[in-house]
Amino acid sequence: MLDFAGKRWWYLGFSGVFFVAALAALAIWGLKPGIEFTSGSTFTVQFLERPVSQAELRQAMRELGHPEARVQASGDNTYIVRTSELENAPSLTAGAGPVPPGEIDDIERGLQERFGALQRKDFATVSGAVSAEIARYATLAVIAAAAAILVYIWLAFRQLPKPWRYGACAVIALVHDAVIVMGLFAILGEFRGVEVDTAFITAILTVIGFSVHDTIVVFDRIREMVTHDPYVPFEEAVNASLTETLARSINTSLVVVLTIVAMLLIGGETIRNFLLVLLVGIVAGTYSSIGVASQVLVAWENRDLARFWRKIRGQQELAAAEAA
């Protein structure tokens, strides 16, 4: 039986380093919001006659009256262009149908005059009111998911002493996973121009579900052991539970990771960020169920933080007495 609980501060310290680094990246750079959260227009254009560089396309957009345009490479001679909200453009939330003539058509004609034949696709516009509503609902969705998980685990483990601790530890683990993913995307947004969109929120919720699922498997095994033998030391119960579920957790996650890697290699540009969130989140979620949720639960049950705080206060009082 592996001694996971005995080395809990090694696991928590390792997680803490990545967690603090992710928080620092978020504080310094923040996430680069996509069109869904900022308002504006976006379209994808592929040039068919000759190679066109990002610098050339940016210069062309400036000459066409859009110096704010952001250009991102997306495949072979293909670029994603984001601008301020274009006039007479359909909303991202509008129904299907032909795109009416508008400012986007003037841009397309201007690009054709400069670079020859092209193909325009994936055009959408989001107004400021719609983007604010999407951001609000996305935030509420994440908060509601965390609250529902806390309540569910609390009820599922109600026959154990202080069952709310299990729910709180699961929420701590999923916050750990979500912050690490967001920190990575803050770094990618700063150095690679990667933006977050509604697919990012969907992927975050998927990662939360996967993380909690893995954590519940471990917690359920702990519950079985504690219920079967109430006198077993809690650390021993956690170690046995983690040892028994370790192979299952790793094998399940490995199958999912291999599938995601294959999709990253052969999939399209439009789902790449979604898959990257899943990849990082599932790896972090597998680790957090072992190295975060379970270890925080052991530290909580053993009152490690309370003992550490009493030790610090005792040293402070001793130093004050010596100074006097």
From TrEMBL:
Residues 113-302 form the Protein export membrane protein SecD/SecF C-terminal domain. The chain crosses the membrane at residues 9-31, 134-155, 167-188, 200-219, 250-268, 274-300. Signal peptide: none annotated. The keyword DNA-binding does not apply. Keywords: Cell membrane, Membrane, Protein transport, Translocation, Transmembrane, Transmembrane helix, Transport. It is found in: Cell membrane. It is a multi-pass membrane protein. Its main location: membrane. Forms a complex with SecD. Part of the essential Sec protein translocation apparatus which comprises SecA, SecYEG and auxiliary proteins SecDF. Other proteins may also be involved. Belongs to the SecD/SecF family. SecF subfamily. Part of the Sec protein translocase complex. Interacts with the SecYEG preprotein conducting channel. SecDF uses the proton motive force (PMF) to complete protein translocation after the ATP-dependent function of SecA. This is Protein-export membrane protein SecF.
